[in-house]
Amino acid sequence: MKASQSGLPHRGFHEPRAGHPRSRPFEPAPDHHDEVETVLSQAQELIERAMSRRRGNGHHIRHLPGDDAVFHAVAGEAIMRARREVLCVLSAGDIADDRRNHTVDLLRHADRRGVQVKALVPASATGPLAAADRALCDHPGFRSWDFQGQNLVITDGREAILRNSADDRAGAQTVLLAAQPLVHFLCSVFEVSWGAGTPLAEIARLSDKLREETAQSVLTYLGAGTKDEVAARRLGMSVRTYRRHVAEMMRDVSATSRFQAGVRAAELGLVSRGGGAIATAVDDGPAQDEPE
User: Fold this and answer.
1) For residue 145, what are the β-bridge partners?
2) How does pLDDT run across 62-71, given as a tens digit for each residue?
3) Contact at 8 Å (CB) between 156 and 84?
4) Each residue of 82-91: pLDDT tens digit?
5) What is the rounded CA–CA span in Å between residue 8 and residue 46?
6) Model pTM?
7) What distances in angstroms separate CA 231 from CA 184, 243, 252, 277, one per listed residue?
8) Which CATH class is domain 211-285?
């Protein structure tokens, strides 16, 4: 069995076939998070307008309850019917230990049938997933993206199942879409987000490296904007050594600036986003004002 770059064999998914789109090497996308968020927002507005105009049109749009059982039953049937491609946005709950067999195993089965699988996983869940399911992380179709909200499954570019989040106005809903303009638009939105995502294999590799105590501390100080001299002194290393660590981490997370490296690590779930680690660094003292 062929080993992945991380040294672990693929146990659940097939190797990409030569010439298959999944066999292309990953090239990091430019940092266009705001642009993608704008596109996703526009997509949601378009879908809501379409649903209000077509409400009651059972052929093109169907409304179902938004609870887990209904969504996963409908989405599971669609995945099993797929013949060419499945595009999927997973929630953190979908990849929790008690649900992974239901959601991810359907994607594994589709992959074994020769269906191209592309899936987005929320950045907040990539750390636990990398530790629990390295075979899944080695699959090139799975990427991480920092997003909130909906579940989405699109099969063969023909039908989409969308579950929106509950808000103050209404509870969660599962919506089945067969209107081709809407489905095609959702496909385009998904591809934009997927192209901006980070392969889980990259995150698993970085997770092993950057979760070491020194790496976490350096990332924390980067995110807090701490001066090199202050951070190096706190870590008990020379400024030259600290800057070497910084350069390596910027390269590892494909960052073009020091601050972006800290933000990028948080987006990938490799360091706390404004949580305990960074708060500890900031509360450790007035870093910018300490004597050098």
Assistant:
1) 122
2) 888 878 888 8
3) yes
4) 999 999 998 8
5) 43
6) 0.65
7) 49, 10, 20, 14
8) mainly alpha
